Amino acid sequence: MHNPVRILYLEDSPRDAELVRDTLQRIAMPHELRVASDRAAYEAALTQTRFDLILSDYALPNYDGMAALALAREKQPDVPFILISGTLGEERAVDCVVHGATDYVLKQNLNRLVPAVLRALTEAGEHEKRQAAEASLRTAEHRYRDLFDQANEGLLIMTLDGQVTEVNCVFAEAHGYTVAELERINIQDLDVLKEQAMDSRAGLLRRMQAGEVLRFEAQHFHKDGQIRPFAVTSRMITLADQSFYLASHQDITAIKRVEAEKRKLEDQLHQAQKMEAVGRLAGGVAHDFNNLLMGIMGYAELCRDAIAPDHPIREYLDEITSGAERSAAITGQLLAFARKQTIAPRVLDLNDAVAGMLKLLRRLIGEDINLAWRPGANLRPVKLDPSQIDQILANLCVNSRDAIAGVGEVTLETGSSTVDAEYCITHADAIPGAYVFLAVSDDGCGMDKETLAQVFEPFFTTKGLGKGTGLGLATVYGIVKQNNGFIYAYSEPGKGTTFKIYLPETAAETVATTVTSKTEAPRGRGETVLVVEDEKSLRVTCGLFLEALDYKVLVAETPGEAMKMIDRHPGDIHVLLTDVVMPGMDGRQLAKRISAVKPGVKVLFMSGYTADVIAQRGVLDEGVQFLSKPFTRDDLARKMRGLLEGPLLPASV
Q: Cα–Cα–Cα angle for 325, 331, 336, nearest 5°?
C-alpha cells in the first residue's frame, strides 16, 4: 500500500483553502493536505515535515508567493511548487516559473489544479528516479575508478586502432610516463615489435571479436629507452556502443631475470654433471690404458736390455717407448681431469710457485709474446702438489699463446678473494670461503659463448687436426676440483680470455720443497718380493724387472693365490708389491691380511688410478708408498730401495 501524498498549502483564506481541498479530492490517490495560514506556520511545517507537493497563494499579508517559493527551494529544493492565485498576471507567473515554480493555477480556473498536481507529482517521481539512477551511476563510476586506479597490474583501454583512451597509474609508472602523457599516444609508439604487431592486429581483432581472451608477452619501450617485458591479457569490451581493447599488463622484468638465472644455474649443473660423468669414464679408461702401456714399456725395456747397444732393432724399441711415454702423458691428463691423479699436496706460497715457473713459461710462449707477472700482496698459503701448479700454468699459457696471432701479452696475476653466498648463487661450483686466486689472461682472439661452454670438456679443441689433444683445459679443471677449488673462464670474441682459478687458503706454515736428483738405479740384495697383479703382462714385466735387479720374486695372479703362497713359503717376504684394484679383494685389504701373518712385510702399492681405495680423492694418506703406472724399471728400483731402507710403516693405512 502506497503512503499518502503529503501536500502543504500556504493560504490565509479559509474559504479558498476549503475550495482547494474539495478540488484535490479528484486526484484519485491517497493524500494529506496541511494548510498553513501564515508565514510562521509555513516555515514551521517546512522544517518539521518532508512534503511531496507545495501549494501557495501568491498574495498574503506581509508575505507573497515569491518569498514562499524561495523558502521552499531553500528547505526542500526538489519538491514541486505550484502557485495558486486570483491576481497573478501572466508576466509575473512566468517570472515565478523562471525562479523555480513548477506551475501556476488561477483561482478562477481551479479545474486546472488536478492535472497540474498530477503532472507535478509524476515529474517529481521521474526526477527522483533519475537522480537515484545518476547517483547509482556515479557510485559505479567511483567504484570502477577505484578498481582501475588501485589495481596491482597496469590497465589500459584503447580504441581498435590502438589510440590510448585510459590508463591507470601502475601502467604509467611501469613505462616511466605520466597518465596524461600516455593518454595522448598510440600503443604502437610503445611496442618494440611495431611492424609485427601491426601485421598481427587483424588476426587478434578477429579472435577477440569472437570472445577470446588473449594472453601473450609483449616488449615495450620504457621512457628511458630500455626495453621491458610484459605479460598481457587482452579482451574486447563495449562502452557506450563502441568497441575497445581492455588489456592488463604485468611487468615481468624481475621474473625474466630470475628465469635467466635459473636457466644459467641449470646449465651449470648439467655441465657439472656431464663433466663428472666424463671424468668417471676417463678415469676407468686411463686405468686400463695404463696397464697396457705398462706392459708395452716393460717388454720394450726388457728387449732393449737383451740386445747389443748397436743393434738395429734398438731404434725401433726406442720409438715404441717414446710413443708409450707420450700416451702415458695423455692418460695422466685424463686422470687429472677425472681427479684420480695421485698427488702429494704441500703447503706452499702461490707467488713463489708461479715465480719459479716464469723462466720456463717465457720460453714456452715465445719471444713475440710478453709475459706480465702481477703478484698479489700478503697472500696466505695454499695446499696442493707443486707439480700441479706447473701443469696449470703450462696448459693455460700454451692456450693463451695459441690464441694470440703475432705479438701479444699474457698476464699472470694472483690475489686474495672472499667468496660469499650471493656470489655462489650465480656460480654453481663455488663454495663460500676465503680463497687465493690465480688469473691467466691474454689479449688473443677470444671465444664466443658456444665455445666457452665447452672449453673444459675432454678432447674438445678449436685447434686444427693433430695440433692439440683437447685435454689441456680438462686437466686444469680436474686439478682445481681435486684441490677443492673452482675455475671460471671469461671471454669475448676479439677481446681476449681470462681463466680465474680459486684455491682455498690454508692457515698452515709454508713447507719447503725438496727435490731428489736421480742417480743410478740401486739394485736389490736378494730380498724376496711378492708381486700380486691380475694383469698377466704386468705380472711378467714386474717379475722380470725385479729379477734383473737381483730380487727374489714370488708372483700371484689373485689375492687368494697370494695368501696361499704366503702359507706355503717357508722364508721371509720382505716386500708386497700389489695392484690396488683387483677382483675379489683390493690391495689394501690384502696388505692388512698379509701383515697379520708376516708383521715385518713392507708394502708398495701400484695402480693406474687409486679409485679412492688407498687415497681420498687421489690424495695419498700419510706414509702410504705408491707407484703410479706406467713406471720404468729404474722407477721401481728406486722406490723399492727407498722402501726397504726406510722405517717400517703399518700396512693398515
A: 125
User: What's the one-letter identity of residue 632?
Assistant: T
Q: Is the peptide bond before 115 cis (omega within 30 degrees of 0)?
A: no
Summary mean pLDDT of the chain = 81
Distances (CA, A) of 447 to 440, 455, 490: 15, 9, 9
Q: What is the pLDDT of residues 199-239, one digit of tens each?
A: 566 677 778 778 788 888 888 888 888 888 888 888 888 87
**Burial status of residue 287 (CB atoms within 10 A of its CB: 0-12, 13-18, 19 or more):** buried
Nine-digit cell string for 221: 619501450
Contact 253, 156 (CB under 8 A): no
Q: At what angle do helices 90-98 and 65-75 cross, to 10 degrees?
A: 10
Percent of the chain with pLDDT over 70: 82
Dihedral sign, CA of 258, 259, 260, 266?
A: positive
What sign does the CA torsion over 104, 108, 110, 112 have?
A: negative
Residue whose entry in the numeric block shows the C-alpha cell 699436496:
345
10: number of Cβ within 10 Å: 29
The answer to whether 213 touches 235, Cβ cutoff 8 Å, is: yes
Q: Looking at the whole model, is its pTM more than 0.70?
A: no
Nearest partner of 217 among 252, 172, 174, judged by Cα:
252
CA distance 268 to 428: 6
Distance CA 327, CA 202 (A): 67
